Amino acid sequence: MNQDYTANAKIIKALSDPSRLKIIDILSCGEMCACDILEHFDFTQPTLSHHMKVLMGCGIVECRKEGLWNYYSLNGTNCNKLILFLMSLITNTDDCICKEKTKGGCK
Amino acid sequence: MNQDYTANAKIIKALSDPSRLKIIDILSCGEMCACDILEHFDFTQPTLSHHMKVLMGCGIVECRKEGLWNYYSLNGTNCNKLILFLMSLITNTDDCICKEKTKGGCK
DNA sequence: ATTAAATATAGATATATATCTATATAGGGG
DNA sequence: CCCCTATATAGATATATATCTATATTTAAT
Description:
- The structure is a homodimer.
- By secondary structure, chain A is of the alpha+beta class.
- The first copy, chain A, has five helices and three strands; from the N terminus they run H-H-E-H-H-E-E-H.
- In chain A, strand 2 and strand 3 form a beta hairpin.
- Chain A is elongated.
- Chains A and B meet through helix 1, helix 2, strand 1, strand 3 and helix 5 of A and helix 1, helix 2, strand 1, strand 3 and helix 5 of B.
- Chain A binds a DNA duplex through helix 4.
């Protein structure tokens, strides 16, 4: 399997959860500490910790530690790369995996 | 949980698999029947059937039946909607879920 | 040093899913 | 009607994951 598919699938998988989409939405306003993010949700602190780990594991979110607090923010570059990947994926480009259509019968 | 998050998470989850990303890439060239898509993969026909069901279930792929063959194609409108959702998600907009940053301490 | 607060980790559980083999269904051709 | 091909479904299995409770770690303040 092409490495691009695998690497981007990991990022996309990190975004495939409603709670994590909401976290991304929250962080789009700027950096925020975990305890303030948590107030937007009904789940427990360890669950948020898990979600943040997933989002950081794929490079879409970064963390700045300051005293007791973890300040999280979006990695804008990686967000943009994901958008560009998806746009190129759905766009018929010259280097597309298939060269010709199959209209009029298979094989 | 906001309905947008849930609905889009379902679409994003459908794209969170390397094989399904490859299928999207293949379909970006135009419609293709299942048997021809299958030739790009090592897994079995029922597995492809499963993947196509997932991709259709979220509205990102459509199917046109013709005789024995199923011709699959991307739903361009829904692809575009997904891109737009992601772009609005990572962009700090007026209707963002959080109104102010938390610089300088939490709570 | 003790305490309190923020976060992380461990372990458990329930659910989802990617894949397989085996079988069923459906449509076309002879 | 019978066979072949394309696709779907059923059922099994192994793995992943979202969540919880309980506990550990880290850092600051007193």
